UniProtKB/TrEMBL annotation:
Entry GO MF terms: cytokine binding; cytokine receptor activity
Region (Disordered): 600-623, 724-744
Listed name of the protein: Fibronectin type-III domain-containing protein
Keyword Disulfide bond: yes
Comp. bias regions, Low complexity: 607-619
Keywords noted in UniProt: Disulfide bond, Glycoprotein, Membrane, Receptor, Repeat, Signal, Transmembrane, Transmembrane helix
Membrane-crossing segments per the record: 493-517
Lineage: Eukaryota, Metazoa, Chordata, Craniata, Vertebrata
Organism whose genome encodes this protein: Esox lucius (Northern pike)
Superkingdom: Eukaryota
Gene3D superfamilies recorded: Immunoglobulins (2.60.40.10)
Any Pfam family: fn3
Length: 744
């Protein structure tokens, strides 16, 4: 779909075509009509004749004849609307209608804030003397001033532009006698300048079979939206050939030989290129290719290269490439279809004391021996390194250092640089001498491999100074010696004295820290695993109370009643007392309250009460009651005596109480009964009980005892235990036991 303006324009002019002028009329469609077939009629009028060009479907028409001496009138009729009768008229004088420009095409190149304008003029070029350019920023309000004029018709440079701006540019030819009409060209849009450099972020060099390798290079470009693609230029370092690759992706993969290559990558836009990113791919050294090639020298102007395999059956075109250290590679290509060697004549003589690398390449193209292309064009057969002439090293190993002990030292040094060896390095000579000041010891020499930069001297004397020197040697001879270095071995006691001091200094703080930590850990473990057991003497678990209380003693035991059994057998009468003891908590709360022991009635006799006001019974009554009770509790017949147990519990008769001052009394805790007994028992009772158990002859005569024999009977009951012998009539053995105890 196309829309046209309503008001049309008609223009007629001439364009110079050497040597004549070609006349032409052009116009525009002024109707706002869509997809309509237009028909025009053009009428050209001059003084004596008239030309009619009917049924024109386009918007231009070449004129056949125009007389340059007369005025010209052109009339254009639009036949698409026959009833409108509308015409467009143009008038002019032919010599004034000769037009030069605008150019057929224009190329632009932006770089360094400059714009190069390169127009193409066509056949009218010979009549154009100069042209001018005007420019402005995209969508800017006005054109920049002043207008720039060209020095010739081929190129114009606009300077001091902004690299990041887009510009509109127009051209116009300068008017002269041959070019009377010089209109401005259409506006050209010029993109911003490419100022970023492509960044190479990956290079892969993978060896392939038969002397080839796969090289992949990848890059990125920051202003990729302005780039239309990339141009990669690859050439061999020797300069034999160069190949350019255009790609729209920032990646390139090639199959190359083992030579060195140089890569140059630039981004491309409509108005120029970016700065180039460069990368050199070094030669690929394959140890498997060494040994297949041999080089011999015929002076410094030629050499012979020979190979092992019969290559001429497969290849007839070869290339030799060689280069020295930090030198540009040179090359020679040749045919060979008879021999397995070739004499190479040199344009530049070889340098002595320089290491050269020689490489032989094979090429599959037999028609042209020169390299056609770089990618997939050749393979490397073999390589070798050689010197035209070797020399001795001109420098010695440097920076000799040592790590010494009592009897050894490890020496280290920096190798001689390759450019200073002037030949293939074969090794080092180590010179050392003991006590160099004396001058009596002989010098010792040791040969060391070329690949080593350290050596250990052993079996040395302690506390001894040694002089050390090093030198390198090649096939041409020994190089210069290094400066003398002096090292002294350590004394024998060095490690003992210093070791002890260091051990003490480092060990004391550590030991103190360990002791402190161990003590803390031990205390914590003790609290967790073994809870603290308090000392009874220091514990509050036992509460001592002093005061007056009623002490109820045990009933006396009548020893005569224990002997009333027949056959000499005796029954053990145990006096059992059930006492109602006051609550410990109540006693603890009031230490002045006296302890009162209440007895309970046993068996069928009913409860027996005792108060502090009841009269004290006599000893005879107590003995009688106790004996009677024991009898009453005994067996009633012989059969019952044989089947019943030997021990019978008797009922307790009412007892009297004795009021006196209570001794220090301890209440029950986690401690032994003996300690409680000793605390609650009055002093002297234990000794008295011991005297009673030993009989009358051993009783104590201590006058300080305050206890009467009757009272002792309460405290020391006689416990008699009879051992009954078997019934076959053997003599029975009776054992009487008397124990002293206190029942609370």
């Amino acid at each position: 779909m196309m829309w046209r303006q309503e008001k049309g324009e008609l223009d007629c002019f001439g364009k110079r075509i050497n040597p004549s002028i070609k006349w032409k009329c052009v116009w525009t469609n002024g109707k706002l009509t869509v997809n309509k077939m237009y028909r025009y009629t053009l009428v050209i009028e001059q003084k004596k004749y008239c030309q009619i060009y009917p049924n024109i479907s386009g918007t231009s028409m070449d004129l056949r004849i125009v007389n340059e001496r007369y005025n010209i009138t052109a009339r254009l009729f639009d036949e698409s609307y026959p009833h409108s009768c509308k015409e467009t008229v143009f008038r002019g004088f032919p010599p004034e209608l000769v037009r030069c420009g605008p150019p057929l095409s224009v190329k632009f190149n932006r770089h360094s804030r400059q714009l190069d304008v390169l127009p193409s003029w066509g056949m009218e070029k010979r009549y154009i003397q100069s042209y001018t350019v005007r420019y402005k920023e995209l969508k800017g309000p006005s054109w920049a001033e002043p207008t720039v004029y060209s020095q010739d018709i081929n190129k114009l440079t606009v300077r001091n532009l902004s690299s990041s701006m887009t510009y509109e540019v127009q051209l116009r030819v300068l008017e002269n006698q041959r070019c009377t009409q010089v209109p401005w060209s259409k506006s050209f849009l010029v993109q911003p300048e490419l100022t970023d450099v492509p960044v190479i972020n990956m290079v892969k060099d993978i060896p392939k079979r038969k002397g080839k390798r796969l090289v992949t290079i990848k890059w990125k470009f920051a202003a990729s939206e302005l780039s239309e693609g990339y141009r990669v230029t690859v050439k061999k370092s020797g300069g034999e050939t160069t190949e350019t690759f255009n790609t729209s992706h920032p990646l390139l993969t090639l199959i190359l030989s083992h030579s060195a290559y140089q890569f140059e990558i630039i981004a491309i836009s409509k108005v120029g290129t970016s700065p180039a990113a460069q990368r050199t791919i070094p030669p690929f050294y394959d140890k498997g290719l060494y040994g297949k090639l041999k080089v011999t020298f015929n002076g410094n102007t030629s050499f012979n290269v020979s190979w092992v395999d019969d290559l001429i059956k497969t290849y007839s075109c070869f290339a030799v490439e060689w280069w020295g250290n930090k030198e540009k590679a040179a090359h020679k290509s040749f045919y060979e279809d008879e021999k397995k060697y070739k004499v190479i004549l040199l344009d530049v003589p070889l340098q002595q004391y320089t290491r050269y690398t020689f490489t032989l390449h094979t090429r599959p193209y037999k028609d042209v021996c020169n390299l056609k292309s770089i990618n997939k064009s050749e393979s490397t057969y073999g390589s070798i390194q050689a010197y035209f002439k070797e020399g001795i090293p001109i420098s010695a190993p440097g920076n000799i250092s040592s790590n010494v002990t009592q009897s050894s030292m490890v020496l280290e040094w920096i190798a001689v640089p390759e450019e200073d060896t002037r030949g293939f390095l074969l090794g080092y000579i180590l010179y050392y001498r003991e006590n160099p000041q004396d001058g009596t010891e002989t010098e010792t020499n040791i040969t060391i491999d070329a690949g080593s930069t350290s050596y250990e001297l052993v079996d040395l004397k302690s506390s001894t100074v040694y002089k050390v020197q090093l030198s390198a040697f090649t096939g041409a001879g020994m190089g210069v010696r290094s400066s003398a270095a002096y090292f002294e071995t350590k004394p024998k006691a060095y490690f003992t004295a210093n070791g002890v001091i260091a051990g003490v200094v480092a060990g004391v703080p550590i030991l103190l820290l360990l002791v402190h930590l161990s003590s803390m850990l031990f205390k914590r473990a003790k609290k967790l695993l073994w809870p603290s057991i308090p000392n009874p003497d220091n514990s509050n678990a036992i509460q001592k109370l002093d005061g007056v209380c009623e002490l109820k003693l045990l009933d006396p035991n009548n020893s005569q009643t224990l002997e009333e059994e027949e056959g000499g057998s005796k029954s053990l009468c145990i006096i059992d007392r059930n006492e109602e003891i006051s609550s410990i908590s109540n006693i603890y709360s009031n230490s002045d309250i006296c302890l009162q022991l209440n007895t309970d009635q046993m068996g069928a006799q009913g409860p027996s009460t005792s108060t502090t006001d009841s009269p004290k019974p006599s000893s005879v009554d107590l003995q009688t009651d106790t004996a009677t009770a024991c009898k009453a509790a005994g067996p009633t017949s012989d059969m019952d005596a044989r089947t019943s147990t030997d021990m019978t519990q008797t009922a307790m008769a009412p007892n009297s109480t004795v009021a006196h001052k209570c001794p220090p009394l301890a209440f029950l805790s986690d401690y032994t009964t003996m300690e409680l007994f000793q605390q609650t028992m009055p002093q002297g009772i234990s000794a008295t009980c011991s005297s009673l158990t030993q009989g009358p002859s051993s009783q104590s005569t201590d006058t300080d005892s305050t206890l009467t024999p009757l009272e002792l009977h309460y405290i020391c009951p006689s416990l008699s235990q009879t051992a009954i012998q078997p019934s076959h009539g053997s003599a029975s053995e009776t054992q009487n036991t008397e124990e002293c105890y206190t029942v609370l």
